[in-house]
Structures
1.
Amino acid sequence: MAFAPGRVNLIGEHVDYCGLPVLPAALSHGVALAFAARRDERVRCLTTEAGFDEVDFTLGQTPPAAGFGRYLAAAVAGVGAGRWTPASRAGLDGAIASDLPVAAGLSSSSAVVIAGALALLALRGRLTPGESLPREDAMRLAHDLAEAEHGVAIQGGAMDQSVCLGAAPGHALHIAFEPARWTPVPVDSGRFRFLAAYSGRRADKGGAAGAIFDERVRQAREALRVAREFLPHADSYPALVTAHPLPELLAAADGLPAPLAGRFRHVVSEAGRTSAAAKHLEDGDATAFGETLDASHESLRRDYAVSTPDLDELVRAARDAGALGARLTGAGLGGSAVILASPDREAAIRARLTERYYLPRGIAAPRGTHLLDATPSGPAALY
Ligand code: GLA
């Protein structure tokens, strides 16, 4: 069996595809894939999740374009390039059970990709239960699977795949992309308690949310291209934020046309907030960390335009209940919020949100809302 966790991004939102660092953590919730080898070239898989048909496709033929089958197809493409496995064409029989809400911004789709990839590596003799990939290999695999996911879904970065493969229990993972570097940052549970609350509004990658996501990726690139005309060192966002102090970049944003000005302002300011937040986490300063969460939400709402009324209401409810900070997490456009509580307020915040309608997973709740414990957990593994 392969298990791959979902993730909650603490901060660094909509910047991974700009090459800028992010700070997510793995959840204890995730996707479990039980699997067995087949002698032929078929991939067949069921899921306990309601509303999803059985997946059935043959390796080397046109893979499914919709449903969770496309994520298994991405796993096949990601590990099948020859670098990871011998050119074996044996398929698999699989069954998936997940305790992550689907399309909730908690990366259930990348979890399917990673679980599928670990299953294929196991069946092709590259990985055995209990064994983990060397760090270099895990980094390479995260990158290859992110690329493969581009072929079937949105044009995101490699945050989700990286934290799923690289997480450490009790730690957030600081992920830098240029150059690639994973640094676990301890989360002191005596000061930081994270919760993830699903707003109940799906962020469907195959639908409108996916189209808006890809538009944001294009706009962030276009903003950089225009900025290059009047700003030195603008070959990439990492080069830009290294070369210029933030006030200078914010002033430069004013020289861009709308909506590119806002997109640019969000990306460069989020880079500053992410490095500040990583420092606050290391220093154990939960109050300051909470403030960066609030500022990030405001920037995503106003400048990047990826919040929704449900997410704004959820974030407000968490703060009213005494959270140190809260913001949308993941792509937004529906989905979930990450909430930071101090240990002494955690029970009260849980109680208030639960009362308002965010019920624990497993209990029927209006619109499928959930409140999940987001204590940082370990990486994907084979059992
Ligand atoms: C999605 C993508 C990630 C990242 C986030 C936004 O989860 O898959 O790569 O871009 O959105 O931060």
Note: The longest strand covers residues 23-37.
2.
Amino acid sequence: MKITFAEKAPKNSLFVAGIYEDASFGNVTKALDKLANGSIKVAVGNADFKGKAERFLRIPSSNGCGGQLMLAGMGDAKKHTPLALEKIGAKLFACLNGLREKKAVIDLSDIPGIKEHTAEKLVAYAASGALIRSWTFDKYKTKREKDEIPVLDELVFITTSAKKSQEVFDKLAAIAKGNHLTRLVVSEPPNVIYPESMAKYAKELSKIGVKVDVLGEKEMTKLGFGALLGVGQGSIRESQLVVMKWMGGKKSEKPIAVVGKGVTFDTGGINIKPSNGMEDMKYDMAGSGVVLGLMKSLAMRKAKVNVVGVMALAENMPSGSAQRPSDVVTSLSGQTIEILNTDAEGRLVLADALWYTQDKFKPQYMIDLATLTGAITVALGYEYAGLFSNDDKLCDMLTAAGSAVGEPLWRLPMGKAYDKDINSDVADVKNVGSGRGAGSITAAHFLERFVNKTPWAHLDIAGMAWDKADKPLTGKGATGYGVRLLNEFLTKNFEA
Ligand code: BES
Ligand code: MN
Ligand code: ZN
């Protein structure tokens, strides 16, 4: 998809005019109407179009405009935020694509801008929304009818300064590309995405300046990754720990660490899951997918920050070599874990990855992302990811970043009474609570036992990584939830 910015509209393309839902609405349409010989007034009246955000009106063959015309509802300009513009851009993309347009020129040159959100910046966000939405996963569809193949491949945004909009857009495009990479690996089937192929995706990033190290089973056995290796021991796929480094900040500054659950398929293991819906467990590596996408966007936009990204990769399979309920493993931390349910595997791969990361990189903050519990969707549905933390300031920073980009977080409680629930009778800790509810919280407590004093946050994204309904920015399927959130968190707090 080609996106450019210009100050004057090129001719001979579909012309999209931004229309604002306030006093200027009448004036704008009047001016356009004059150009289009009165056809707009009739069309707007018939469709009852008032410029509401994310509403569009296609006006066929309006002679006088140099061709085809469409009105794009921009909503109330006084309420314009970057996120609002991204959503408009995304919906516009979907609409144009549905109409099978090839190219469009979108005139937002009269967008007013508000406070720190300049007109040129808001236009860049509209373009970013279109770019985010433009990603599709159709590589395995070999037999589509011609009229099912999307054709829209070029957008030109008209703005008061093409240079200023382009500058903002370059950063946003890097974030969008990260989001696309996450959605790709999350969408790929588990016969294509497994620990070693995820590691390969990471190694690709070394071309753009990310330093990548991979530990295989041999190295992890030597180091003592008993918890992570136990999860992968029933699979023919080799478990991997991937460390990616982007050191764009000051040499003296301790890194921010981001750790992702990467269970490339979660059958449940010997505690096997029911068949209904098991296919969803291809996205049980979404936490790692976010770490991968984040590292890509940091490198692409040359972020001035030090970030270590870690992917904890294993496949959870039942087999003759799989771990059993009641097995006891020794984690990298030295703590022993009684495995009471082989389906509570995410916390096991993270236990070793978190311990390794804090010990080796001494991060100033450590954040993990994981499709950790089904219980989080019982608590929060598909609207918020769960946030758990030992640090109030970190929670505030993450929550603010999440609401700015529309990837919201809701903090849930932690405390001694919950923590007691994972004490084991035979080992230091057991991998499931005693079945007294609060499954997402006891899971977070399990992770906390492998964190020590590092300021840490855990994002349970089980309800957010995949959407069965249509999201404005990302449509159906993999959302890439977390990439934009963490970019915002890093930019706002560490790159100033
Ligand atoms: N990967 C699942 C959690 C999950 C559920 C992610 C739905 C995405 C959508 C996780 O490994 C799991 O199986 N959790 C168990 C924990 C239980 C055994 C304590 C669960 O949620 O049932
Ligand atoms: Mn599981
Ligand atoms: Zn899982």
Note: Residues 176-494 form a domain with the Aminopeptidase fold (CATH 3.40.630.10).
